[in-house]
Design goal:
Elements (H helix, E strand, L loop, with lengths): L2 H26 L3 H21 L3 H20 L6 H21 L8 H6 L7 H30 L1 H6 L4 H23 L4 H13 L5 H26 L3 H24 L1
Helix pairs in contact: 1-6, 1-8, 1-9, 1-10, 2-3, 2-4, 2-8, 2-9, 3-4, 3-8, 6-8, 9-10, 9-11, 10-11
């Protein structure tokens, strides 16, 4: 197996393994639009990296984390609903990024690579970054899993029981932001939310507990990566889009299996 295929496969499997449980929380807390907002802000991070001459991956991570923290802060303000805030931040950050890039006359940027990802262009450095971030998120999820579940089921009751709900919410947002930032290289700005949501939504059809749903989402996400890379190599399609297509196929299969079982 060629190195570029192996690197892409490992990167995709690591991201799928973390996207499973995080995607479950995204579905439980109805944060799908939040993933899109973070993905759009990634282009602003690309523009900042060019303006400040710093590492692109680092700039994207900083931008996504800053936007997540800003959203948590703004949610405390009663003037605007969360969906309105997400719309403003999503389109505002995307527009700022595009305008900033257009002002750089001496820069030629391949936006397609950022919009749709380039899994087979993942190198050793990208693999190290993805592995480090994935391991950090995995440790945090294992340690705070029950607390995050309590917050998700009933935030007010969790606060009464002594859980620091605001800190837990901020931590969850930051973990999603980190995943979006590093996964953009693999599936791109326009597709990262799909990788978060679709495997978790498919796993929901046959899960009886939160843990089963999270593990099922990991398994389906990894199958989507394997299927998408196979499709990309066989019929020469974009790897990121192929992974999402494979995930949709698995979702449809799970939906039909659920309907058949209910008959």
């Amino acid at each position: 197996m060629a190195d570029f295929i192996l690197f892409g496969l490992i990167a995709g499997l690591m991201i799928a393994a973390i996207a499973g449980p995080l995607g479950s929380f995204v579905i439980w807390q109805r944060l799908a639009y939040f993933g899109d907002t973070l993905a759009h802000s990634a282009l602003l991070g690309v523009a900042l990296s060019l303006w400040l001459a710093i590492d692109t991956q680092l700039a994207i991570i900083i931008t996504c984390l800053a936007l997540a923290a800003l959203l948590v802060f703004l949610q405390r303000q009663p003037q605007l609903a969360t969906d309105s805030l997400l719309g403003i931040l999503s389109h505002g950050s995307l527009a700022l990024g595009l305008v900033a890039v257009s002002l750089m006359d001496d820069v030629r940027l391949d936006l397609n690579a950022y919009l749709f990802g380039d899994l087979l262009a993942v190198g050793p450095k990208d693999l190290w970054v993805i592995g480090t971030v994935s391991a950090a998120i995995a440790v945090a999820l294992i340690k705070f899993w029950q607390a995050l579940l309590n917050m998700t089921v009933h935030a007010e009751l969790a606060a009464v029981e002594g859980f620091r709900v605001e800190r837990l919410r901020l931590m969850l947002m930051l973990m999603i932001a980190l995943l979006v930032a590093v996964a953009m290289k693999v599936v791109g700005v326009l597709l990262i939310t799909a990788l978060l949501i679709i495997p978790a939504a498919a796993a929901r059809h046959f899960s009886r507990s939160p843990e089963q749903m999270a593990l099922g989402a990991v398994a389906l996400g990894c199958l989507s990566v394997l299927g998408g890379i196979s499709m990309s190599l066989t019929i020469d399609t974009p790897a990121g889009a192929s992974i999402v297509v494979a995930a949709i196929g698995l979702f449809l299969v799970s939906l039909m299996a659920k309907k058949k079982a209910s008959l």
